[in-house]
Amino acid sequence: MRADTDARPLRPVMNSTRFHSLFAGPVLPLMAFGTALNLVVGQITAALKIPIYLDSLGTILVAVLAGPWQAAISGSLANLLAAAFGNPAMAFFIPVVCVIAIWTSLVARWGWFRRWPLTVLGGVLQGVIAALISAPIAAYVFGGTMLAGTDLLVILYRSLGNDILRSTLLQGLTSDPVDKVISYLLVVALLSRLPSRLLMRFPGAVRIQPPAADHVA
Q: Three-state SS across the chain?
């Protein structure tokens, strides 16, 4: 009985240590950078009315280098800030952010970011998954109109006789895979420019292969 009583206080300590390890070292600054990257690039693409988003770059970067929980928090914070800065619709898409964080972490764990064909495949699948989740939100909460460049695709599919849900889904299946492939490739390009000494400070560095290593030997 005494042994059991003495062991109980160890559990919160272990949980606290685990929590600290998730956000130790440069991970918190990386999360802040990811939030800012999502917010800034997303605002630019929304202002330009182009039919892609590029507002998940930071989430993807954090997911690759740190992990799913860190990426989900970073991306969700970006959506909340975007909602506070005048686009309240973004708050409703936090579930999509979390799915992007989880899927990207799995892709990184599988080593798909080491080869660009697999990176492209991961981006396409990510886009399909994101479209399936976001379409009902866009259709039923906002009537398919998001005040973005993708609204033109929704209008196009509506003019072909599709209902609002199908039009929104078709829009997502058209633009989201392209958006996520571009985002994945941009993150790979960014990672290829970072020095190995910096990359190795992040827990996810073991899951990616810096292109410089391919030219050694």
A: CHHHHHHCCHHHHHHHHHHHHHCCCCHHHHHHHHHHHHHHHHHHHHHHCCCCCCCCHHHHHHHHHCCHHHHHHHHHHHHHHHHHCCCHHHHHHHHHHHHHHHHHHHHHHCCHHHCHHHHHHHHHHHHHHHHHHHHHHHHHHHCCCCCCCCHHHHHHHHHCCCCHHHHHHHHHHHHHHHHHHHHHHHHHHHHHHCCHHHHCCCHHHHHCCCHHHHCCC
